[in-house]
Amino acid sequence: MFTDTHCHVYEEYYENIDEIINNAKNNKINRLINNGCDNKSNIEVIKTINKYPNIYGAIGIHPEATETYQNIDLINLENNLSNKKVIAIGEIGLDYHYTKENKEKQKELFDYQLKLATKYNLPVIIHSREATEDTINILSKYNLKGVIHSFSGSLETANIYIKMGYLLGINGVITFKNSKLKEVIKQISLEHIILETDSPYLTPEPYRGKKNEPARIINIANFISNLKNIELDELARITNANIKRIFDI
Ligand code: NI
Fold first, then answer.
1. Is residue 100 pLDDT above 90, yes or no?
2. Residue 78 near residue 87, CB atoms below 8 Å
3. Cα of 230 to ligand 1 centre, how many Å?
4. 8 C-alpha to center of ligand 1: Å?
5. Contacts by 198-201, CB closer than 8 A, 24 or more apart
6. Contact between 56 and 249 (Cβ < 8 Å)
7. Is pTM, for the whole model, over 0.85?
8. β-strand partners of 55
9. Ligand 1 centroid vs 246 CA: distance in angstroms?
């Protein structure tokens, strides 16, 4: 069985979450880590982890919410860290793709949440887009465990994160025709990789264009199993062991 280590399964995206979980089970995916991005979605995450035994949660304020979050959101975030099924702070990080104007504010918010992770001894799920250097510099100041979500960088960047003890979250991007990620992943040991869908985004081939869901982990797993010439069961065993090194599940 596989785990979807990064999805956004909220009621606003999926009418029938029971069906999403059943589809996942029928495709050998028995656990989900549901990720929040702001106060509203963090509440959605808490709802799902309280209701479904096989959903775990990560809560955090995403860099795209830098201009809109309120201080009370950070208090709510901290209060919910005592929930036993909240297993990480995420997704958090830096995103300079849409705007570089608020770099300092983004770094401040990121830093604050890394301090929370340190305080509560929790791993982190990192979003980094067009911000590799700053992400590495800030993470180097902390001694945290975690995942670089939606990793799609160079082999050199991959090796820096690996040396720092981070896992690389690999999703449907690897199946895209123009993606250079497969060449990078070919050269990386599976001990450093976990699988994620980022549902409802980043749907893998051949379903690109449709709404993604956790069941599609199987398509990513099949792709990597071919790429690395490894049995599906062995891939599940290795990635689950990797998850266990970082997360308390
Ligand atoms: Ni995400």
1. no
2. no
3. 27
4. 7
5. 198/6, 198/7, 198/8, 198/149, 198/150, 198/171, 198/172, 199/4, 199/7, 199/8, 199/9, 199/13, 200/8, 200/13, 200/14, 201/8
6. yes
7. yes
8. 32
9. 18
CA of 200 to the centre of ligand 1 (A): 9
Amino acid at 138: I
- Kindly list the protein residues that place their beta carbon closer than 5 angstroms to ligand 1, a single-atom ion: 198
Per-residue pLDDT reduced to its tens digit, 146-193: 999 999 999 999 999 999 999 999 999 999 999 999 999 999 999 999
Cα angle vertex 85, ends 82, 89, to 5°?
A: 70
Q: Ligand 1 centroid to 187 CA: how many Å?
A: 25
Regarding beta strands 193-195 and 167-170, do their DSSP bridges make them parallel or antiparallel, or are they unpaired? Answer: parallel
**Which residues, including other chains, have CB under 8 Å from residue 23's CB and lie 6 or more apart?**
213, 214, 215
Residue range 115-151, pLDDT digits in tens: 999 999 999 999 999 999 999 999 999 999 999 999 9
CA–centroid distance, residue 196 to ligand 1 (Å):
9
Question: Looking at this protein, which amino acid is placed at residue 78?
Answer: E
71-84: pLDDT as tens digits:
999 999 999 999 99
Please check the confidence at residue 98 and state whether its pLDDT lies above 90.
no
The CA 35 to ligand 1 mean position distance, Å, reads 7
CA–centroid distance, residue 151 to ligand 1 (Å): 11
Determine the distance separating the centroid of ligand 1 and the alpha carbon of 110, expressed in angstroms.
Answer: 16
CA separation for the pair 20, 222 (Å, rounded)? 20
Q: How far is the CA of 234 from the centre of ligand 1 (A)?
A: 26
What distance in angstroms lies between residue 233's CA and the mean position of ligand 1's atoms? Answer: 26
Q: Which of 142, 122, 92 lies closest to 249, judged by CA?
A: 122
